[in-house]
Structures are given as structure tokens and as C-alpha cells.
Amino acid sequence: MALKVVKFHQRWKFVVNGNIDHVPSLLQTRLLQRSHSSAVPRKIPSNSVNCGGKMAKKKLASFSDRKVISESLSSDKQQTILKQPKHQLTEQRFSNKIISPTVTPKTRSTSFISVPMGRRTKSRSFMDIVPPAPIAIPNLPSNSTDFIVNLKKDDISRILENFARRPLVRELSEQNNVNRKMFHAAYKSFRNYCLNASPLDPCIAVTISDVLNKGYLKIVLSARDVDSLYPYFIEHAKRVYPHLECEKELKTLSDLSKPHNWYPKAREVFRRIHFHAGPTNSGKTYEALQRFYQARTGFYCGPLRLLASEVCQKTNERGINCDMVTGEERRYAVDADNPSSHVAMTVEMVPVDVSVDIAVIDEIQMLRDQSRGWAWTRALLGIAAEEIHLCGEEAAIDIVRNLLDPIGEHVEVHKYERKTPLFLSEQALKKLDNIQDGDCLVCFSVSMLFSITRRLMKLGIQPTVIYGALPPWTKLNQAKIFNEMTRKPNVMVATDAVGMGLNLNVRRIIFVQFPFGEHQANYHVVQVAGRAGRFQSAYPEGYVSTLRQSDMPMLKNFMEEPIKSIETAGIAPTSEQLETFSYHLPHASFLSIIDMFISISSLSKKFHLCDIDQFRKLAELIDEIPLSMKVRYAFCTAPVDMDMDNSVARTCFVRIARRFAEGQGINYNWFCEIIQWPLPKPTNITMLLDMCKLYNLIDLYLWLSYKFPDMFPDREKVRHLGKLIESYINEALATISNLTSETNDVSQRIYTYSVFIVAEKETVSQRLLREGLGIVGAILGIHGYMFENLCSFMKMEVILCPQWTVISVYSPELHEKIDEVTRTVGRPTGIEGW
After folding, report:
1. What positions does the domain Helicase C-terminal occupy (predicted)?
2. What does the alpha-carbon distance between residue 503 and residue 480 come to, in Å, rounded to a whole number?
């Protein structure tokens, strides 16, 4: 039987012959549990240090051997070596272990560096990351110098080979932090220099000549004769690896354990900290904003453009001039030359060199975020305000106190309770026919969102739609349509993007599925569920439920389990740190500098290093383009969509960086050319998603235009283009019934691979009955609107793997279809998750 393996948009793969690849965590956990219970334990050999075998039996270097080389070293280095007992030298000589930088008990070295595809791996040693610098070899005519020592290349090669084989040379090189890999690279460069330099350095030439003269009458050179080359070799090695001269400085620059020392302006102010703690819909942000309105000057720092825009609008409506600052937009109550006393901004944009009376930092619990947590940590420690109001979950109280305790700042906590009740429904929705006014169906993938939307359209229900890739003002427009309650029934289908930044008249939140597994932290689900029954909305009570009854126990666990206290806050290196770090490594690429910085950086137990996958991917794309460090850092922090299937964004990003490096401005006409504008209005789901990706490029241009206004001169033209794209997207969502019609199905985006495992021609059902096995991982995260074509395409022979008997289905349609099949032919044994 030919086994069909289906993949959608590079998001996941199937379980094939027991191998797990891109499987949702719930299914993966169950598969691993089954495999561990049935598999034979494999004995893992213990790690042992190879002490060199026969090498360990060689005679140790004598005291006189060590003394010969020590005469060429500095006095402090002599004392270090000569005072060491002979057995310590022996252990270091024959050990494969590389001594890592010393870390104090209060700090810890980062154990991970970010790599592409969102995976994490153990960090490589700093010594393994540093690239060797090229050494220029002089090539002058023989008559251009007065000092020439005639040496044969064969003699030089023989002497250098004896030198490299000396155990004491390796030992002393390790004393100078030259590990084995670096030693080979440095020796190769040193040998190349000695053989090809014209003229050869006089000191090296004389030393080699002396060695030859001493060994003229000897058949084999004495080992000690070549030791006098060591000082010249180590000097050359420090040219090949410049960091050897400044290792202490590099460790100091990469010390991330005390970030409060990075903000001298804030340390000059005696700050009063107020923490407004409570769940969603408890009024905590409202109370903090009252102080913001009363202040003479103030900052509001929020996680989203929509929140910054809302606060800016409300402040101006009160007669208080307020500007808005985000990465992609600036709004001024008066104009750019007359800044307002109050500023609402996204948290990444807050200045740490300006003093204000009041600062409000919203959603402070996001300092635990793996991607953006550094921005909240920076705002908390760096804002120079006399009074700071933090708004967020109670789970952040302890970490905030821990961060501010070394500064000597007291945290005053104000706790709030939810203003309206939120109830957990006893029963799931079960069928979309049971949908009611004010319901919001929450999906955790865009594919499922459009699947549910299509099914609602078949029932005659036209929902409003919100997902993360939509432009901010399109989300606001969809929220406005939903809040006006003109549609009957008034229903919304959204991703978890509704969890923050929008005020909605939602009566009931219904989770379509939980694809992220049982062991996911519950705070995200609680945040989304809290959008139901908002204070002063049309519904005084909120409810939360699921689409499937089988998901209700999981939802109950999420809602009832206490949210764990946050243990660490996010942190990331600053542009100034990386720039100073790079001065000591002039030949290293920016990508190497990032890896080197991370590999030797040290953190205290209060912090975690934020995920720099996005940053690193962008750095890799422009690694070969000649840009200054500041420009390169700015480009790598730009808002670029790096999804696997968004090759257009990556291509445009590289072309913009290359044109920037050539000194040519990125004008409107050239920008339209690279994004292939104009494009037709969206007529199906695929075109709508592509249009949203195009809007991301508009954001990229606007963001860079504020960093480099001279090189991006047509900001307003591009902003107007963005508004036009928004109108296209709004029109498409207004006629979403056309987008989700069967004639516009995107089944052509299914990629199939054939894996032949059995030559027998029999159906899955027959084999299940014959072998008593179940279906494994049938369809993971399937696009519901592709279900009919997919089932006919695969003829229900979805997947069969003899090693597993577990099923995990996230599509309601497929769930019902398989249930119908099993009722007909008999339910297979060992099936879970029905």
C-alpha cells in the first residue's frame, strides 16, 4: 500500500515508521509515552575523558624543558607555570577538556544559542566560534632589504614540524587559551608565513638559523632546540585570533547579569513603583491611566499599536495633548516641532534618556515573553520617571520585586478583582448550529479560522474575522462591525490575537481546539477567555467553552489551575554592546559576533536570554552585504515576516539592504517594483493571505524610514499605499462568502509524498481489523475547508503506522467522518482522544 504523507504550508509532517517530525506537542507526548513503555531501554555509555592512551605513558617534560620556554615569557606567566606541580601539567596536557570562562556563583553562562527553524541547541564554545583572521604575507624583492638570512624551505618545514609536535608547546598554548582547534589554525597560518614571507621576520629567521646551526651535526634535532620559536608563534596566534589580547574586555562587555547599571538616567531618580495587579477586565489599567492624565508629563507604554492609539485618542479627547510613537507611525497633537507633554507608544520605543513625571507600563507580565520580554525589562529598569505604574497579572509581582530590589526601590501593590463574573460552561457547543449572538470562536491557526468561517457561511451566518496578520486598523474595523451588533446572529471567528488590544462585545469565548498540548502554560488561555463579558459591554456576564466536549476537561484545567509566578525576565544585548564587542573582533562577521556574544554572555538567575531566532535569520540574510554595524543592527530588528512560505518578504528585505549599501535611495517607484505592485484585489483565501504579507512590507518601509529618513524619502506615498491595501483587505473580508466558496478551494497547495511500506492491496479498515491496530495521528491541524477534496484524494486511507495506536484529530469534519467509518466497520482497538 502506498502511504500518502500530506503537508500544508510547511507547518507539519506526519509520523512515519515511528519517527516524530513537527507533531503537535499533545500527540508527540503520547507517542513518546507509548514508545518508552514498549521499547527496550538502550544503554548509554558514560562519558569519559580520553587521557591520550599511549601518549599518557610518555615521559613528562622535565623542569629544564619548562624553563627553556619560560625564559621567553613575561615574569607573571613564568611564575604561573613554574609554580604548577608536574602532575597538574600532565593532566592539562593530555586532557581533551577545554576550560570555559570562570563564572561566579551568582551568574550563569547562557547554555543555548538561537538557531534557524526555532530550534535550540547547546551553545558552541566561544573558541570554536571565533573565525581565524587572515594574515597578510609580505612579498618584497630580495634587493629591497639589507638583512637576509638564506634558509631552505625544507629546513624551515622540518623545524616547524618538530615544534608543532612538542607536548609542552600545546600545553603552553592552552595556558594562553589557544585550544586544539585554534592551535591547528594558528600553526597552519604561522607555517604558511614562515615558508612564504619575503622577507621573513628577522627575529624568526635568526631563531630558525640558530636552531639549524645547533643541530648541524645531529641526525635528529633536539626537542628543546625548537622551543625558542614559541614566543613568535604565540604572538602570531594572537594576530590570527585578536580576542586573545582582549578576552577580559569581551567577557565584561557580554556580562548581562546587572542590566540596571545600563541606565544611569533612571538611577539618578528616586522612583516610586506602583503595581496594579489583577485579571483581565478588573480596571487596573484604567486606574493607572487616571494618574497618567493628571501628570504634567507622562509616558504610556503598551504592547500593541492599537493600545497606544486608543490611549492617545482618549488623552486628546480630555483636552490633553498627546502624541503617539510606534515603530511604523508617528502622530502629533500639534506637529513634530512641538512635541506634546504626553506620549503613548509601544514599549520598544520608550526612551530611557528622558525624564517624565509619570510612566505607565501595561501588560508587565510580558517580561516573561521569549521574544519581546527584553523590552519590558528595559522599560522597568530604564525609564527615568518619578512615578511608575505597572499593570499586569499577579504572577509578575515577585519577579518585579526581585528586579528592583538591587536598586533599592520599593514596590507598592494594588490588587483588583474582575468587575464582571466569568463562568465556565458545563457543556461544549458541540455543533455550530448552536451558535448564539455574541459568540467568539477562537482558533489557534489561520487555516482552522477559515475552515470554521466557511462552515458558518454554509449555515447562513456571516462572521467578522480577526487574526494576527491583519493590519491593525483592519482589526479595529472588524471589531467595530462586531460591536455594532448589526448582524444576526452577531458572531466573530478569531485567532488568539483577540486576547489583547481590542474591546469587544463578547458574551462567550468558544475554543475550537487546543493544538498546543496539555502541558502548555495556562496564562495565555486565561487571557483570551477573559475577553468575554467585558465591563460596560453589552453583556454583563461572560462564559467560556469549547467546540468539542472532549476538550472541556482540558479547558477546566487551564481555567482552574493557578498561574505560576514568573521566575525570570527577558533580556537581550543592546546595539551599543554588540558594536563595542565587534571593535575587538574586526575580522568577524556580524553573524559570528552574535554567536560569540551569546556563547560567553553571563546572566543572573533572574533573567533569561530572549529568543533571537528572528534577529539571527535576518543577520544571516544580509551577512555578505557591506553595512556598518549600526545599520546592520537596525535592519536585523526590523519587522519582517520570516515565515517559511514568505519568500517575497525575504527577497525584498535583501534587495532593500543591498540598495541601501550601494548608497541609493529606496524611493516609491522602486519599492512598488520589488513588491510587484499593483496587484489585483483578493478573490480567494490565498490572495487575501498574500495581501496581508504585502502589508507587512509596507510596515517594513515605514519602520526603516524613521531610522533612515534620507534613504527612505517617500514615507507618505508608501503610507497611502498601505491604506489602499487595507481597503482591499476590508473589502475582501466584507465579502468573505466569496473567498470561502468551494470554487476557490486551495487544495492545490497540498504537497504529497509517497512512502511505500507494504505491497499488499487492502484498505486501512481491513488491515486495522486484521492486525487489531489503530490509526495514528490521522490529520494534524488539517485545513477544514480542504476536507472534502482531501478525503476523496486519499480515499480515507489516511495513515497507518504499525508501531503506534493513537489518534489525534483536530478537524471536526475529519473527526466526524472517521467516527462514521469506525461505526460502520468496527472501532479499532487502542484509540485515544475521541
Report:
1. 424-579
2. 9
Q: Same domain, yes or no, for 394 and 502?
A: no
Which whole-number Å values give the CA distances from 501 to 392, 419, 476, 639, 676, in the listed order?
Answer: 14, 18, 9, 19, 32
Q: For residues 208 and 267, state if they share a domain.
A: no
* Domain of residue 533, residue span: 422-560
How far is it, in rounded angstroms, from Cα 430 to Cα 816?
Answer: 11
Taking the C-alpha atoms of residue 636 and residue 705, their distance in angstroms, rounded to an integer, is 15
Residue 810 and residue 827: Cα distance in Å, rounded? 19
CA 362 to CA 360: how far, in whole Å? 6
The per-residue pLDDT for range 113-168, each reduced to its tens digit, is: 333 333 333 455 666 677 788 888 887 766 555 556 678 888 888 889 888 888 88
Q: How far apart are CA 212 and CA 609, in angstroms?
A: 55
Mean residue pLDDT of the chain comes to 76
- Domain end call among 539, 560, 581: 560
Residue 350 has pLDDT above 70, yes or no: yes
Q: Are 768 and 797 in a shared domain?
A: yes
Residues 710 and 795 in one domain: no
**Omega cis (within 30) before 678:** yes
Task: Pick the last residue of a domain from 415, 442, 463.
Answer: 415
Q: How many domains does the chain have?
A: 5
Q: Taking the chain, what is the end-to-end CA distance rounded to the nearest angstrom?
A: 26
Residue 569 lies in a domain: no
Name the pairing type of β-strands 272-277 and 384-392.
Answer: parallel
Q: Which pLDDT value is given to residue 257? A: 92
